[in-house]
Structure formats: structure tokens, C-alpha cells
Input
Amino acid sequence: MKLVRYGMLGKEKPGLIDADGKLRDLSKHIKNIGPDQLGDAALARLRALKTDELPLVKGTPRYASPVAGVPKFIAIGLNFADHAAESGLPIPPEPIVFMKATSCIQGPNDDVMLPKGSVKTDWEVELGVVMGTRARYVSQKDALSHVAGYCTINDVSEREYQIERGGTWDKGKGCDTFGPIGPWLVTRDEIPNPQKLGMWLDVNGKRMQTGNTKTMIFSVAKIVSYVSQFMTLEPGDVITTGTPPGVGLGMKPPMYLKKGDVMTLGIEGLGEQRQTVVPFSR
Ligand code: ZN
Output
């Protein structure tokens, strides 16, 4: 299933994308898509619905993050060897774990706002993992059975705040609008192998990032297992799993986002995002 949340900010409804790519409303069946709707039993109930009997949604509404009420937004750094190289950093011996503030989460096509005074705002297309059930000290073998599904994420990053402001990385990762998620939460039954998904990102129509999850240093199963040794993963937690090369920081000279730039990005089978960069406003 491709689950979505759609509608105006604060008035989002749950929905799904049917086999013909049409948006259908789920609000007669579930209140929202969040921690309480992501377990295997809850997803099985949705899967049993007759999709062609669900109401079609008219027009082209805004998409929100397909997950509401995300308890934790966890991120993995330098998970592609060639991205570590372009960042001038060694390949990490263990996954680098940091947090993105949940207040940065937004819809996939909402504007990205430059933070106040920012001159080094950058892009990162990433595979997002959405937890379906609680995971605590899970093995790598069992890890994926705790995953509800997958999504496209732009791990927007302010490099000066991330690297030059005394630590930690979190300062440059959780600014408002820095977490576009979606458009779809694709349930894990449709992505039997998350380690073979093509990914790309363009700025103003020019290809900047091309990658594939097959070249991740640490697999999704490894990441879920690893993170669960340090904190309990709860339903609705989102883990963004690292970016392939081609970020602005790695350009010679570096190139950062400015007002009016448009980022478009996507992951094979998980849908596409489009964000316009806007200046700081309160
Ligand atoms: Zn990242």
C-alpha cells in the first residue's frame, strides 16, 4: 500500500494511492496515519479494504508527511563511502547516529525555508524507514519485521551550523522545514529488498545526486538493529538512512541553496518531492 496524508496544514486526512495512481480517502476507516496505525494488524485491516469502494479525492490536494505524530526522527550520517569521501571524512567504523528535531517535519512539496542568516543550506536525498512495532535490542535478522514501510526524505542540512558551530551535527539538521517526508509511506510488503532502490536529486533541473541504496555502508536491517541497542524504537519513529554523493558541500567550490531554487528528488517506488527554497520569515 501507498499510504498518504493529504489536505491543508493541520487538517490532513488519511488516504491511499490506488493501483491506478488515484488518491482515495481513508478517513471513514482510520483517524490518521501515525503510531497507532502502523502495526502489522492495523495495516492488514487496511489491506483488506476494497480499494475501489473508497471515495476518490477530487483535485490535487497538498500532501503532508505520510506519518503524523512521529515520536523520534533519527538520522544516520556518512552511510555511503563516496559521500564520506566528498565530505572529507573517513568511512565510519560504526553507524553515526544523530537526531533531527521532529519540529522540522513537513510535507514533501512544502517550501524549504533558509534559516535566519544561513549561507550554507544543502540537500540530501535519503531512504526513510518508518517503524511499525517497538524494537529493542533486535537482531539484524528480525529488524525488518519491525518496519512498517519506506519513504523518500530530504535531509536538508545547514553545513555551517552542522560543522562550524561547536557540535553537535543536530544544530544544522533540525531547523524548521528541514524534514520533508513523503509523499507516500510504501508498506514493506511492496519493498521486499530495500537495498536496491535508485535515488536522485536535482536542483533547478540539474542532476546533483545519483545513487542506489545497494551502496550503503550499513544496510537498513543493520541500522534498525544497531539503533535499537541504544534506544527503544517506537511505532512511528522515522530513521533517515544517509545520502549518496552529490551534495553542495562536496562541490568544488561548494554550492548552497538560495532563494528561488527548486529541489526535486525521488527514490524508486517511493515517489517524488519538489521544494522551492524561500527566505527566512517568522
Ligand atoms: Zn543525511
Observations:
- The pocket of zinc ion is lined by residues 75, 124, 126, 155, 242-243 (CB under 6 Å).
